[in-house]
Amino acid sequence: MMKTCDVAIIGAGIIGASCANALAEEGLRVVLFDRQTPGCEASWAAGGMLSPAPYLPDDEQLAPLANESLRLYPEFVRAIESASQKRVNYRGSGAIEVFYGAEGAVERDRYVASCRALKIEAESITATEARRLEPAIASNVRAASRFASEGTVEPRALMDAVLESARVRKVDIRANCAVQSLVIERERCVGVIAEGERIATNRVVIAAGCYSQEILATDSESGRRLATLFPTRPVRGQMIALLPRDASLGQPLRSSRGYLVPRANGWIVAGSTLEEAGFEKRTTAEGLRKIRSAAIEMVPGLAGAEIVESWCGLRPGTPDGLPILGPTDIEGVIAATGHFRNGILLAPVTAQLVKDWIGGEPQLPVAAYSPLRFARAAVQSHSAS
Q1: Is the distance from CB of 260 to CB of 272 less than 8 angstroms?
Q2: What is the pLDDT of residue 247?
Q3: What stretches of the chain show up as alpha helix (H) in DSSP?
């Protein structure tokens, strides 16, 4: 007898697993597929900062989504921890951003003003005030901003808890089980084929991160269209974990060059690079050197810290830097991918949106993230040529 389910989710990182939890909680039968060990790609490699503040220019368009997801995070954590009986080490400790040089105060004020315009809670503080909060901050810091509502989570612990919560909610998790294609009939999705097995379903959520574009329909025309809607690519990010001897932090610290996130075990995680290196998943001496240099610039006491771990992950980038969220023009296929550097932060709101799309309509303005924007862009480009 052919296996059937209400929803098939392709990709078991933090986005796919969070969506699986939300849908299973509604009583839907969910199958969650992953081409490798669930949660071991971008989610496993993340730093764990929960920050809606813009880091790259395109991030400003993410602010409404990021603000809402940050608001949802405490309840998201409570639900996951309750179901899984696992701790995710969530902390709402706030964060500090530091600025250097003669123009540091000007840059800070400009940045704080831009954050406030996006309804992000931000405050200008002096370097002295910053060092009062975090004495380890370098003496050459000239200005700082404080983000009191931000938090952190430990991504690996979060992934373990979210997957366990999904199991408790009877999600069928299939590790090392790649989905080769979707089955499309008359512009409708009617199933998926995974490791040669056909599973009947009329709803599929694409949450496969940087591998999303590789999912093809059995029909070649539909396959080309799907590929157009999911133009994800891998963007490598390297990280290190430091065990400090002469420095400590109580909250995340960041600058334009990098960031530091304290862990409950005493480590300080430092990151990160943004590299167009294809699917080459390895650390480099130069990448790790840059991360360590930025860390020591912020906190000189880390100069003698031991590097206890180094790793990298492949973030799912998109052409415009925004996630790909929402229904496609193939009935039953919903996008939940391309979160780039913000997958951990955006997991709660993405799960809520996917639940809304399957059961009705979302309340948030989400047109900017629609996968159909890429199809429209392709048509406009063709017309122009």
Answers
A1: no
A2: 83
A3: 14-25, 42-45, 63-84, 104-117, 127-133, 155-168, 220-229, 285-298, 343-359, 372-384
Residue 199: burial class (beta carbons within 10 Å; 0-12, 13-18, 19+) = buried
**Whole-structure pTM value:** 0.95
Q: How many domains is the chain built from? A: 3
Query: Which of 285, 317, 349 is the C-terminal boundary of a domain?
Result: 317
Tell me how far apart the terminal alpha carbons of the chain are, to the nearest angstrom. Answer: 50
| C-beta of residue 179 within 8 angstroms of C-beta of residue 333 | no
Two tokens at 26? 């509604």
CATH number, domain at 284?
Answer: 3.30.9.10
123 forms beta bridges with 146
Residue 288: helix, strand or coil by DSSP?
Answer: helix
Q: Residue ranges of the chain with pLDDT lower than 50?
A: 379, 382-383, 385
CA distances from 247 to 136, 257, 259, 297, 298 (A): 6, 19, 15, 13, 11
Cis omega (within 30 of 0) for bond into 139? no
Domain span including residue 378? 3-74+155-232+319-384
pLDDT (0 to 100) of residue 379: 47
215 and 249 housed in the same domain = no
Q: From 228, 88, 83, select the one nearest 159 (Cα to Cα).
A: 88
